[in-house]
Amino acid sequence: MKLNNINHIFFDLDHTLWDFDKNSALAFERVFKSRNIPLEINNFLEVYMPINFKYWERYRNDDVSKEDLRYGRLKDSFDVLKFEADRMLIDNIAIDYIQYLPDHNYLLDGGKEVLDYLKSNYELHIITNGFEEVQHKKLINSGIHEYFTTVTTSEEAGVKKPNKQIFEFALKKSSATPQNSIMIGDNFEADCTGAKNCGIKPIFFDYYRNKENIDVIHIKTLKELKAYL
Description:
The protein is an alpha/beta fold. The chain has two domains: 8-18 and 106-227, Rossmann fold (3-Layer(aba) Sandwich), CATH 3.40.50.1000; 20-103, Putative phosphatase, domain 2 (DNA polymerase, domain 1).
């Protein structure tokens, strides 16, 4: 079922186009090696990933600051693993991680193919809650920056998804309307609920394949977008 009268497509970046899990693991491997951190990376990630997810949820809700997120997710993970690290070491690891993260640039399967498919018929845009200083680097270093007419970050907009105002900010920036736009993202609350509240049709990318019986279009692979666009 093709969607009609769509001119603008807004994508989330992390876990939607950019393979955050793989690139993040590679960045931590590099940090641990350079800092001689004696933790097995897979054991660390098993603990860190759910903690990081919770911190991002709190960050979206303005319950923690950017600095609290960067420090707290590492401190809590090290505590669970009983690895002793002082404030200075954790701060340095956090800085290194953000520095190294955009150096690894795996895209999710089908990402480049779908962008090539869409670019001739639609204006493409990014709306992301990711940090301003790394999101643009991710786009440039992974070779997909040129596909997007606008990139809107939560720090630029002053609010985070799912806040309606970030979508309104992105629409104004791109000269789009809710009626001629769709939003594609992996976080149901931030991307889909947020978009719907602004009048934008959402497509949910079920990246972790754990949602059932939802009332919006949902895909499990990026290539499935071709059926709708």
